[in-house]
Design a protein that fits this description.
11 helices, four-stranded mixed sheet, 2 domains, 54% helix, Ribosomal Protein L15, Chain: K, domain 2, Four Helix Bundle (Hemerythrin (Met), subunit A), 8 strands, alpha/beta
Length: 332
């Protein structure tokens, strides 16, 4: 399996010499690797620098280069030979105007359905004392029932705002159940959006882990949409805003529970200390979270990475042919 170079931290730089990537920290070389061994380069900090020769080397080998700021997407290296399918872009813009509700429902359906699959798995596998297990499973069962109700109501929605409302209600109960199974020392109570926190306040370590995990997923979905010829800025469920990759956020939804939530919940329950390290924003802790999610997406026999690419192509095909999009639905 090829490497993903995640570059973060003050004084980190990436250079190219004699056809190899060289990684430096505060002027000292700490690593060297061949471009044939690299799948992607993720620049995850403003303090990181990369030379033009390293960019050229990455472009020549078709290596995905993504720039992120606080785990939000900023830029991607696009080879000069790239030529997007204009036919798909035109059809996508038309679909946003004419069939937005239909596609928005599909994305929400995929997310809520896969949240239920995660909940079913937690319900089946949760073990504790007899009393504790009964209480926790009751909370999970409540969330399973609630998400089922939200799924049934999706077809009756008359606008995208109603779809978003159902998705939000399902998510609220889902995260309550997740909080119940996580170690209490992590301090996770609900999913927190970064922009809702008071200035200077840090989220709990599990929310930090989710942010990193979703950034890893975003990179994969962004790449898949890019290869499928989709316009990342014209979405259906997420509103169009300047600089916001609404379509990428749409396509991410069905994969958030199974590509990120599931492996990170398992990590938190089995290796709580790895999540706790994020309180100090330790570089190795960030790398551990990123690797956990990426490894899970590459897991055989049916890597989610491949399924993401298939779904992006299916979405492009559905848009061009003016057909229904069917989200990916996982098993337990």
């Amino acid at each position: 399996m090829k490497k993903i170079l995640v570059l973060a931290g003050y004084g980190v730089s990436l250079k190219a010499r004699k056809g190899l990537f060289q990684i430096f920290e505060k002027g000292k070389k700490v690593g060297e690797t061949s471009p044939v061994e690299v799948e992607a380069i993720v620049i995850a900090s403003r303090a990181v620098s990369i030379t033009s020769s390293a960019l050229v080397l990455a472009a020549n080998y078709g290596i995905d280069v993504v720039v992120m700021d606080k785990w939000n997407p900023v830029a991607r290296l696009i080879p000069a030979v790239y030529g997007s399918t204009m036919k798909t872009w035109i059809a996508q813009i038309a679909a946003v105007k004419k069939r937005r509700l239909t596609y928005a429902r599909a994305f929400a359906e995929g997310k809520i359905y896969n949240q239920r699959m995660v909940l079913y798995s937690l319900y089946k596998k949760y073990t504790g004392s007899k009393h504790e297990t009964r209480i926790i499973r009751a909370k999970i069962r409540k969330a399973i029932d609630h998400t089922g109700e939200m799924l049934e109501k999706l077809d009756k929605t008359s606008n995208v705002a109603e779809v978003r409302s159902l998705e939000a209600h399902a998510a609220k109960e889902y995260w309550k159940a997740v909080a119940a199974v996580l170690p209490k020392t992590l301090g996770f109570k609900s999913r927190i959006k970064k922009y809702t926190l008071p200035k200077g306040e840090e989220p709990d370590p599990f929310n930090k882990a989710l942010n990193i995990g979703y950034a890893a997923l975003l990179r994969e979905v962004w790449k898949a949409a890019f290869l499928a010829g989709l316009n990342p800025y014209y979405g259906f469920l997420h509103a169009k805003r300047p600089g916001r990759m609404s379509l990428i956020l749409d396509l991410m939804e069905e994969f958030r529970p199974i590509a990120v939530d599931r492996p990170l919940i398992n990590l938190a329950r089995k290796e709580e200390k790895e999540i706790e390290k994020l309180r100090e924003n330790r570089k190795e802790a960030v790398a551990k979270i990123w690797k956990t999610v990426v490894d899970y997406m590459n897991k055989e026999p049916k890597p989610l990475k491949n399924i993401i690419q298939q779904q992006a192509r299916k979405l492009a095909k559905a848009i061009v042919e003016k057909q229904e999009y069917k989200p990916y639905k996982s098993t337990w």
